[in-house]
Write a structure and sequence with these properties.
alpha/beta; 20% strand; four-stranded mixed sheet; 16 strands; 2 domains; binds zinc ion; Urease, subunit C, domain 1; TIM Barrel
């Protein structure tokens, strides 16, 4: 059904009950609820919270539900997961990838997500099959979700030189951003060469960057400072997202402060993945075990945009994962002590407004913005994060899904 208005809506930061009028696929106006009479095409939110559809800024659609295709990850580590996935992806068909990716998009949408940034493997082992499968899934789900894709050379660019051309090919066929993972290379020097090559490719293809970086507890993993320096040297400020950045939490406070100042200077965004990094990191610790998450509160204090992603749904990296972005806000509250009401609101913003800002999508509840809206049966953001309710309605471009 095409919806013309949502009435009796509670909105963030506003008193009273409101109505959101829609026209075409956009928001037309936000008015007092009393101004919109009931009609067949008007949804009554019954006082529920209406927000722009949630954003997942970091997912792997090609990996989703692959736990069914891959032997179990016995050590639980990132490196064993990458090894298992590298072997499995040699065999996967485009159809297999497409079907699993659609299943993941549908799961995310059912929890109120309207925009996903997904990484997709580009590696010699899988050729173009993974990105072809995910591109086909994006086409098939265009009526319910916007998807941005990142070419992700999971097996390296130096270690797997065939990936370089696959990055080019994937972007030419519709993938949006260039990715990277320097910590997969054999040596630090090769990791830095990987970053340089990633910037060369991004410049050549005129693409923004989203790079998996320092996803380890090793305090000697120093790629983020190289990323910041290269971002400044290559004039790429405002076009780079650093994903994970776990090692930052293991640096000394004085070193971490220097790196965070560099991240701010380079105008790099940071995306953490609370569930997956709580699970994958700390694997070489006995007790106490580190949390694996980057220094979110300190990054936010410096005004660095931060968001939280789902990352994995039932794959060799993470056996759980539902696609419910409120899970990630909930976990952030615990993992980084975001306990006051404004901090809980910030945790929500990291799967909502800040995440959309990082992905360069305008997802605000204002006239002219896309009518991608989710209604939750609670009337405040703390209960939203606390109870993680299923949406009572999800709208995509004014259509009730
Ligand atoms: Zn990832």
């Amino acid at each position: 059904m095409t919806v013309t208005a949502i009435t009796n809506a509670t909105l963030l930061d506003q008193e009273g009950r409101h109505a959101i009028q829609l026209e075409g696929d956009k928001i037309k106006a936000v008015v007092d609820a009393s101004e919109v009479p009931p009609d067949d095409t008007v949804i009554d939110a019954n006082g529920g919270l209406v927000v722009p559809s949630l954003v997942d800024p970091h997912l792997h659609l090609d990996l989703a539900y692959s736990v069914e295709e891959v032997p179990p990850n016995k050590s639980g580590t990132l490196l064993e997961a990458i090894g298992l996935w590298s072997a499995a992806k040699r065999e996967l068909s485009v159809e297999n990838v497409k079907a699993r990716a659609i299943r993941a998009v549908n799961a995310e949408v059912s929890f109120g997500t309207g925009f996903i940034r997904s990484h997709v493997d580009v590696a010699s082992a899988s050729g173009d099959r993974l990105f072809q499968g995910v591109l086909a899934a994006r086409d098939e789900t265009r009526d319910r979700c916007d998807i941005q894709l990142v070419a992700f050379p999971q097996d390296g660019l130096i270690r797997d030189p065939g990936a370089v051309d696959l990055v080019r090919q994937s972007v030419k066929q519709g993938v949006d951003l260039v990715g990277g993972i320097p910590h997969i290379e054999r040596t630090r020097r090769e990791g830095i060469a990987h970053l340089e090559l990633m910037f060369d490719l991004a410049r050549e293809l005129d693409a923004d960057i989203d790079v998996h970086i320092d996803e380890t507890d090793d305090p000697q993993s120093l790629y983020t400072e190289h990323l910041a320096s290269l971002t400044i040297q290559r004039n790429y400020q405002g076009r780079v997202t650093a994903s994970h950045v776990c090692a930052l939490s293991s640096y000394t406070d004085v070193h971490a402060a220097r790196v965070m100042d560099l991240i701010a200077e380079a105008k790099i965004n940071v995306v953490c993945n609370p569930g997956v990094n709580l699970h994958l990191q700390g694997r070489f610790d006995t007790y106490p075990k580190r949390r694996g998450l980057t220094r979110i509160s300190q990054l936010l204090e410096r005004g660095i945009p931060c968001a939280a992603g789902q990352d994995c749904i039932k794959d060799p990296f993470y056996p759980l994962g539902t696609g419910q972005m409120l899970d990630q806000a909930f976990l952030l509250v615990h993992a980084d002590h975001l306990s006051t009401p404004p901090q809980i609101r910030t945790a929500f913003d990291m799967v909502s407004s800040m995440a959309s800002q990082i992905c360069k999508r305008d997802a605000r509840l204002i006239p002219g913005a896309a009518a991608n809206l989710t209604i939750f049966p609670v009337d405040n953001v703390i209960d939203l994060v606390r109870t993680k309710p299923i949406p009572s309605e999800v709208l995509f471009r004014s259509r009730s899904l």
